[in-house]
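Reopening this ticket.

The earlier resolution said the output was attached, but the attachment link was broken on my side. Pasting everything inline this time so it's all in one place.
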Amino acid sequence: MTANGQQQKLYLLDYGAGNVRSLVNAIERLGYHIEFIQSAADFDKADKIIFPGVGAYGYAIQALDKKGFTESLRSYIASGRPLMGICVGMQVLFEGSEESPEVQGLGIFEGRVALFNSGVKTVPHIGWNAAQVVHTDDSQPAPAMNDGERFYFVHSYAAPYTGEGTQPQFVHTATRYSDETIISSVWKDNVFATQFHPEKSGSAGLELLRSFIQDDLVRKPFRDAVAPPSSVKDALGVRVIACLDVRTNDSGDLVVTKGDQYDVRENSGDVRNLGKPVDLAARYFTEGADEITFLNITSFRDCPFADTPMLEVLRQTSERVFVPLTIGGGVRDVAEPDGSRVWPAVDVAGEYFRSGADKVSIGSDAVYAAERYWQRMAAGEPPLDGSTAIEQIAERYGRQAVVISVDPRRVYVNSPEDAPTHHVIETAFPGPEGQRYCWYQCTVKGGREPRDTDVRQLVTACQAMGAGEILLNCMDKDGTNSGYDLELIRDTKAAASIPVIASSGAGCPEHFSEAVEKTNVDAVLAAGIFHRREVPIEAVKRHMDERGIPVRITGSQTS
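Inline output:
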């Protein structure tokens, strides 16, 4: 672009991937304007194009073909005009992917995208990790990326980094996730692309976007040796997540509330009001929250879905918050009050994504789906039939977009034989009658209705359906400030091959580090203690950092 980036035309290539609103908001936050490519002719009008992608590799390629954009994109790249790809927008530049073996990629870069090995780590790779520059090329201007700076990753597939073949010509940064080293950004000639999401990477991501828009990032031919994979360090941080329970109060206002063991009313009978959702979310972004989760605990059955207040909450929040947003509550088939239409759950999720959400959280419907899964298996039928919201959303938007929110409670028994159909553990905290064993019973309808399904059964079924993450609440610990239920977390981690978020019970910084050190949980979440500033997010991260737990430290936490 020109010196101030305002004279040239910036376009966004959207094939219907999901949340592009956040990218548009990030660009506008930087003071720039972006147009959407509506037809193949728009490629000729563009001076720069940003190509974001979320979800399945094959879906992205097929969507480009269906819109008639594939050859136009190739021609645009060949013209020498700058392109920036994001996530799947980077992956499709390679020759192909294990995710969709029959689909051919654009082949701009040599290599194929592969599924992470889940044998020794959780998959998807979700969280803030470092992108390490692996070459010594001094091309200027360069993308605004500092070694050691963390960016937000969320993906199950990646291009392996070997440093061999033609990789020295195009690999810009590499990232290590446990036992694997991947390409986290490419840069060759006029093409720059990232596996991570700059628009969800806070101030570091905004600066990277600014450098692409403002500067002409053209990398001259480079063939010197690059750093070996063994030199790339794993810097994945434990995420600290702020959760906001949102509902209408008795006056009809949308407020953030917090219950004690799921009771959100004060002694006076009024709904506990801890602030406005958008303002609180913006505050947490400033304070360094790694993600923000909204849990909608109000039914809006009398409201047309397009007018659901949570859609507007997401739209406004995504204009001010540039870390990942999760929305839970109401992600199911929704009938319009007048009976004119039924929104399938996958379309409900799509509206949330288009409004600014990155992930959707499914609660009660996940329990019902798990029950059907085990019923079909017991009957000798295929347990998966593609009919559940989990399967459909994961297929269209990727499993990383689906979070399962679990609301379990302890059921004490005298021995495992007393609960033969459930996974029973021996507990260090005996029950009211001295019982030394318990199992964790799933509940639905906000904890009001217990079900004959345990947490292990739920996790096993939902993983098979395509869920990408577990939000592990605990009814017994909610609002107690006595620490997380470590036995529950440890047992769930043992059963899960996907990331687990610990929730319910934190009351001091030590509770967060204890959960990580004793259970190896992937993320820690809290609500009320953050809302009331009893424990600031900064204090939690400083404490974890002092304990040697890797966390993302923002500018506000170092000042």
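Reporter confirms the inline version is readable. The longest strand covers residues 239-248. The two ends are 34 Å apart (CA to CA).
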